[in-house]
Amino acid sequence: MSFVNLLSPTIGGYMELIDKHKRYGKFFYASSSNKYKNEENLKLLSRNGMLVFYVPPFIVTLVALATIPRQDLRFIMVEYVLFVHKFSGFMMVNDAITIGASYCVSTTTMIYAQYVSQELPEPSVDLKHVGLAIFSIGITGNFYHHCILSSLRKKGDKEYKIPKGGMFDLIICPHYLFEIVEFIGVSCISQTIFTLCFTLGTVFLLIARSYATREWYILKFGDTFRKDIKDIIPYLF
Fold first, then answer.
1. Whose CB has fewer CB within 10 Å in the chain, the N or C terminal residue?
2. Coil, strand, or helix at residue 20?
């Protein structure tokens, strides 16, 4: 499962690089050849799609907290890692189900890996409190930049806009950058090979998705998009 959780998001990142996006948000409309555009029965409001993404792993976490015996502090800290953000637009039902199922499986297996690792000796260097600090920075930055994104449109406004403020003045996907920081924090808290593999795969996926997002903004807004704004790492990439 460690290998699967490294390979799966890595493949997802590769698909982003070759312009094979999951059909939600701005990328739902990215391709003029998308045969699903006019099939309303297959479309799902993305806010509802986020519930499909996050409710199953949230339930898994609650069940684990309530039923698994002998939970040490590291295990409990891993279980409490969950964050849901605001979203707009549409997505395809099958993509929502696929992503939701992958989140649920990843959460379940991460909790299981943490559970069985309790029988192993503690790591020689304890990083769980450092990880908690890193995770707190990541989730705060993630939340702040999602607040900026959620305030871009007024009620009834469906036009995409170039986000400004915070680190959006330097990179187009600061929410992805801080999500990476979150997962680094989770890996430090967990200190298992499984979580490290999941983090590495997710890092590649988010870097690839940030590249695709910047390319979309350039295509959408042309010369009005500042070319000095990078993908995900300020001044570098």
1. C
2. coil
- CA dist 221 and 49 (Å) reads 27
Spatial distance between the Cα atoms of 201 and 196, rounded to a whole number of angstroms: 9
Q: Cβ–Cβ contacts within 10 Å for residue 10, how many? A: 18
Q: Name the more confident of 101 and 123.
A: 123
For 152-183, how does the pLDDT look when each residue is reduced to its tens digit (9 = 90+)? 877 667 677 889 999 999 999 999 999 999 99
DSSP 44: E
Q: What is the pLDDT of residues 45-83, one digit of tens each?
A: 666 777 777 788 888 888 887 888 777 777 777 776 643
- At 133, is the secondary structure helix, strand, or coil? helix
**What are 23's two structure tokens?**
């059909």
Are the C-beta atoms of 10 and 201 separated by less than 8 Å? yes
Q: Which amino acid is at 50?
A: M
Question: What average pLDDT does the segment 118-122 reach?
Answer: 84
Q: 218-229 in b/e burial notation, b at 16+ Cβ within 10 A?
A: eeeeeeeeeeeb
Token digits for 101?
């199922």
Q: What is the pLDDT, as a whole number, of residue 38?
A: 53
pLDDT attached to residue 27: 61
Q: Which is it for strands 43-45 and 90-92: parallel, antiparallel or unpaired?
A: antiparallel
Q: Are 191 and 121 in contact (CB under 8 A)?
A: no
- DSSP run (H or E) holding 194: helix 193-221
User: What are the tokens at 86?
Assistant: 């605001």
